[in-house]
């Protein structure tokens, strides 16, 4: 598996945040998280990894082309790149994705980004400890999930690796394991709410 045509460019030393997600559909909460991550973690770019399908979700998302189109409409920012790299690589488990990207982009300082809800369940992901050893992790507050994230099995297991809130800007350059939690003005948007409201096509059966 190697770097391919159409993949985003990144120079060694660049700090790049990776926001994996179902984006079914993308919404203003994702855009808010991305802008905040650029500022709070001192990132040069954020790449959205629009997932072929969350390994823990039983029903598949809407077709990739539809989700990519919506993502591009929601997030039009010079430093945010919308990608379907996991589909190209044929992977959907994050540990495998991160392994591949680190190998394909030597010298690039990646940070895995996620909302607090995902930090709360990280211990159920494949090779989740490896994720924390592969790159620093930046977690962004989400309504209702702050406490669950900060008391989660992953947070407890990696308690000593938590970076203070005053030093999050250099997160990408920290030795691993390192993770940071940032409290932002919370955004209530969720893809579930949009699907339930009928504003987004139902999943394929
Ligand atoms: N409003 C939000 N605030 C902070 N983080 C968010 C927000 N919405 C989504 N995220 C984060 O963005 C990433 C991708 O989210 P995802 O595509 O699953 O959207 P979602 O709204 O959580 O979807 P669903 O409701 O289907 O679970 C996840 O890490 C998630 O925690
Ligand atoms: O690797 C795993 O086992 C794993 C389990 C659950 C979720 N993830 C990833 O977490 C990201 C957020 O997923 P979602 O569905 O909450 O948007 C997305 O990139 C998923 O592939 C990964």
Would you kindly provide a written description of the structure presented here, covering whatever features stand out?
The chain is of the alpha/beta class. It has one domain: Rossmann fold (3-Layer(aba) Sandwich). Helix content is 34%, strand content 16%. It is built from 9 helices and 6 strands; from the N terminus they run E-H-E-H-E-H-H-E-H-H-E-H-H-E-H. The chain has a 6-stranded parallel beta sheet with strand order 3-2-1-4-5-6, with helices on both faces. Helix 4 packs parallel to helix 6. The longest helix has 13 residues. It is globular and about 45 Å long. Bound molecules: adenosine-5'-triphosphate (ATP) and nicotinate mononucleotide.
Low-confidence stretches: none
CATH superfamily: HUPs
Largest sheet: 6 strands, parallel
Helix share, percent: 25-40%
**CATH topology, anyone?**
Rossmann fold
Beta-strand content estimate? 15-25%
At the first level of CATH, the class is Alpha Beta
Separation, N- and C-terminal Cα atoms: 32 Å
Give the number of helices. Answer: 9
The strand line-up of the biggest sheet is: 3-2-1-4-5-6
What's the mean pLDDT score?
94
